[in-house]
C-alpha cells in the first residue's frame, strides 16, 4: 500500500522569503512523500516573493513555478488541503496566535533570521538567502529521510521539534 503524502505548511509573517524557500525546497526533495505549502500571518497588500529569494532558488535549480505570497487564512477554508505538519520559520510568526488548523496537525518552530532584513548590498543579501536556503535544505533533507514510523502523527510533532535542534 503506498504511503500517504504528508502536507507541510511553512509559516512566516509576510510569506515572502523563508517560508517560500521552504515550500520550494520541500516540493523538490519530498519525492512524493511530502507536499510543501507556505503562507504568512499578515502578508502586505500585493505581497510578492522576494526577488532575491526567487533568484537564489533558480540558481540552485529549484522551480519557482506557482510560488506566490498568501495569507494563512487560505488554509483554514473548507476546501483547503489538510495539513499534517505546520512549521513556523520566523520568530514573529512563532509568537503569534495561530488560527485553528483543521485536523489539529503537528506543529514545530524552526527559527531562521530574515535574509532580506538589513541594509546590506544586494550581494550581501543574496549571500544571506544562500545561507538560509542551505540551512533549510539540510533540515528538510533530514525530515524527508525519516522512516515511516517517525512520521506517524503521534511521533511527527516531537520529531519535527527535534529537527529544530539539528
From TrEMBL:
The keyword Transcription regulation does not apply. It comes from the Bacteria. It comes from Rhodoferax antarcticus ANT.BR. SUPFAM superfamilies: Phosphotyrosine protein phosphatases I (SSF52788). InterPro entries: Ptyr_pPase, Ptyr_pPase_sf. Residues 6-146 form the Phosphotyrosine protein phosphatase I domain. Transmembrane segments: none annotated. Keywords: Arsenical resistance. This is Tyrosine phosphatase family protein. One of its GO terms (biological process) is response to arsenic-containing substance. SMART domains: LMWPc. Pfam families: LMWPc.
